[in-house]
Amino acid sequence: AGGRSGRSLTPWPGQQEKLIQQELTSLKATVSAPTTTLRLMKECMVRLIYCEMLGYESSFGYIHAIKLAQQGNLLEKRVGYLAVSLFLHENHELLLLLVNTVVKDLQSTNLVEVCMALTVVSQIFPREMIPAVLPLIEDKLQHSKEIIRRKAVQALYKFYLIAPNQVQHIHDKFRKALCDRDAGVMAASLHIYLQMIKENSSGYKDLTGSFVTILKQVVGGKLPIDFNYHSVPAPWLQIQLLRILGLLGKDDPRTSELMYDVLDESLRRAEINHNITYAILFECVQTIYTIYPKSELLEKAAKCIGKFVLSPKINLKYLGLKALTYVIQQDPNLALQHQMTIIECLDHPDPIIKRETLELLYRITNGQNVIVIVQKMLDYLKESKEEYAIINLVGKIAELWFIQTMNAVFSVGGDVVHPDIPNNFLRLLAEGFDDRKEDDQLRMYAVQSYLALLEEEDALYPQKFLQVMSWVLGEYSSLVTDVDPEVILTKLHSLLKKTVITSETKMWIMAAVTKIASHASCSKIVDKLIQEFSNSLDTCMRQYAFELKHLCEDKALMRNLLPFDGSCNDMVVDASLSFLDGFVAEGLGRGAAPYKPHHQRQEEKLSQEKALNFEPYGLSFVSSVSSSGVTGRQSPTGLSFGSDTSGNSAETGHKETNTLKLEGVRRLWGKEGYLPKKENKVGKENEPQTVSCGSLLAGQMGDPPALRSDQVASLSEEDKEKQQLASTLFIGLGSNAGVSLMGKADTATQKFKRKSKINETQSSEEASDFQDTSLCSSDIVEDNLAFETPQSLKKSGPDDRLPDIRLSQSSLFADSNIEIFQPSRNAQSESASKTPLVPCLSEELEELTHSEVVELCQSDALALYLCKVWTDDSLLLIVFVSNKTTSALNAVNLVFEEAEHFQILESTTYQFPVIEAQNVERCQKRVWMDKICTQGILSGSVNYQSEMETRLEFSITLSLVDFIRPMEMTTEDFGKLWLSLSNDVKQNIKMSSSQDSLSATLSTLQQKLKLHIVDIIGNEGILACQLLPSVPCLLHCRTHSGMLALWFRSPCSALPDGLLYQCQKVMEES
């Protein structure tokens, strides 16, 4: 009986689908029946959840899950919420129907209902509906029950992940949650702080003491015993805190010093042999090697790594390799201590151990061991069958080595390699390096290798590899003069006839044939191809054949269209399609309808049919467009204009007609030109940055560890091979080698780039050296205060900085002729006592709106001051350079660094030929914001020659408000522009008692944010501004029950979020 029962409960895979389909049919009938009770509906939801978990769609039950959450008792509501969170995704259209239920439950007096609402909000909630529930969740942070406060923090963490700009105004409340009397609320707030510190660690340095204190209490067992796991106090809380401390202490001696004791205590107490303590030790090791180093802690961390690596347990060995991979950048000698263990791991039966060992070798690759390491990677690649491992390893090999292994990479990696790899390979081959002769030799070698591969008749190559071959042969086959083009065309023709070749690859081959034919005389193969594919069923191939036929009839035109090595030439594109102007004018003359943008067509469509109102009840904007107007995106200019003081806009709203709208046609062109072209430029700016291949072969020869002769004699042949392999792999890692490792950070992926020029390489090395030495004294660390550094620094190795935290000058600087500026307290007091030269603006600039003149930085010789002048067309930075010495300074160079978010309109450099003694000179630079941010840093330096060459660095903090200007317009123009803008953001903000009227609030926004008030009627107002040079942003405001409803619209998606944050900041300060 038991056997029969087991067989009935565990159907075969073929029977499972039949049973599930029968169950779904029954459930569909049950949930659709009007007599189904809520209790039965709850049981049906549980069954539907099980069916969905097995992979069978049950979309017919989604709406019933929402109804169950709305109508049921506590148990039924809980099942309904659970089903909704499992069934729907964040962008599902049915999720909007749940918003009002969530709002109602958040206002409930029943704690269980409030908890359920907060839980579903923290799991799944639409981004555009956040303003509807945000004020309610903020209030829950003050709730008397700790479980409510904890879930409210979790909900805000979810909001921060999907819409960070909408919760920036409540950062002070996050700090209160961190200090909450309940440990669970405090632990929940750590998730938010970890995310925020990852993005901007400098803004939270002041909280380092709080995090250290919390970790001390946790490690000391001061938390309730409920937080213990296998007698370990709050292990996951410890891991979170260790990660936060690692981010805060990176390259910061003062902050790191606060956490040395607690890290030592964490290492000492994590001695229980359990997996969770191993995880804590791993995080401790990572944190110790991330923060500013201390020799005692580094020794303890190295011992901990050694125990992991030498452990016979696979999990601990993997953890040790993982930690060793992380710390190898700071301490290469640590790999030498465990080199034989690493060699043994290369042949470990566990593929995960072997893969992590290859990752470690990848991090220590230099110019002397790259060949051996790449060969090991290729050996593993040939054995591996896992797609993820192939993709990951192919990318690493492509970064380490080039032509000699790329053929093997494409052959073995197949079509699962990332598209960036062949694209970057071809781009590097096309762009070349600095030497034209070397470039041609590299291309000739590629052509010859591909011709040799195509000689093998039965060889099957992946499609991506064939596409690479086709492109290279088409572009550079003419470089190989000893091969007849007809032979190459024959090989390509034979590829086209193979059935395994995909349509996409055939188009690559036809493009190659066309390019080769442009440099060759009459070809029988080309004529044969045209004849074969002119009648092809493949439309693309037929088009290629006709194009090739017409081009062959005019060889001169063909050579002009397809020049040799023209892949990198800039193409002139008529983005405005001006050549069609005559055709368009002719069509309009015959009565054709003008072109309408997509958004205008959508609005006209929505105005003729009923549409869902996506606004939550009680917090929505008042719709004031008549039934014949636009339903989806109404214009605020139709709100209350011409109405009485009550602001009843529904009675006298602006009415739109259904006549043809011609305004939308011009929105394809603006002051900046053709708008889609501008979007393409923005897309190019977002392309990932590349890293130079020239640095991949850096490194110097180092002596491998030597063995005594009696030891060598006693070794077996296998051990001798391992020793030989170790000496080959770990060459250049000695303490005296000064090797340049090629290890990469986990978060950055290197791509191909053209070889950097020598001076560029030197300057980049100088910049990186300057950052790594961490010379900033505790006496001179301030926000905008910079310090002098020499032009050239020598990078100190790990061993040079381990023994002591405070480095001597002789250990850092090998050149004794370089001046090192480290002002003492006495020197500072003496300089402060001197009467400074106070700069001032000219009379012309003094009349404009400007800031105070503030000091940027100073040294014994120079002082830098800054004044911001807000002109109509740009932000004008006036930099004053004051000579404090009694002698003239010659050739003073002021240089601004390239910034991610800002664009300097003129040259980024300025030279003062001479600055007389006790005199002030100035320069001015016009700046625009190139990439929108709420706040950014513009850095620069001043180089001058006094007794020796010296450099003084400075930084300028710029805000989004610096680049906002009022945009004057009429109400009618506002309404037309509003309908043409596609990106909008909405937010409700609480108004304080001091903000008693809308006009006073708008006046504050006008003054602080440089907005233009277009009109105010009743409880509604509209404002306009622009981001320099001419990106508009419109704002509609409305007061409602003590709330200020803000609605921004702009053609730029990031601008409304940035202005919303500034508005929230102003409202809190006022």
TrEMBL record:
Transmembrane segments: none annotated. Residues 632-651, 759-773 have a biased composition (Polar residues). GO terms for biological process: intracellular protein transport; vesicle-mediated transport. Pfam families: Adaptin_N, AP4E_app_platf. Keywords: Golgi apparatus, Membrane, Protein transport, Transport. SUPFAM superfamilies: ARM repeat (SSF48371). Residues 965-1068 form the AP-4 complex subunit epsilon-1 C-terminal domain. It comes from the Eukaryota. InterPro entries: Adaptor_Complx_Large_Subunit, AP4_complex_esu, AP4E1_C, ARM-like, ARM-type_fold, Clathrin/coatomer_adapt-like_N. It is found in: Endomembrane system. One of its GO terms (cellular component) is AP-4 adaptor complex. Residues 632-655, 694-719, 749-773 are annotated as: Disordered. The keyword Membrane applies. It is a peripheral membrane protein. Belongs to the adaptor complexes large subunit family. Adaptor protein complex 4 (AP-4) is a heterotetramer composed of two large adaptins, a medium adaptin and a small adaptin. Subunit of novel type of clathrin- or non-clathrin-associated protein coat involved in targeting proteins from the trans-Golgi network (TGN) to the endosomal-lysosomal system. This is AP-4 complex subunit epsilon.
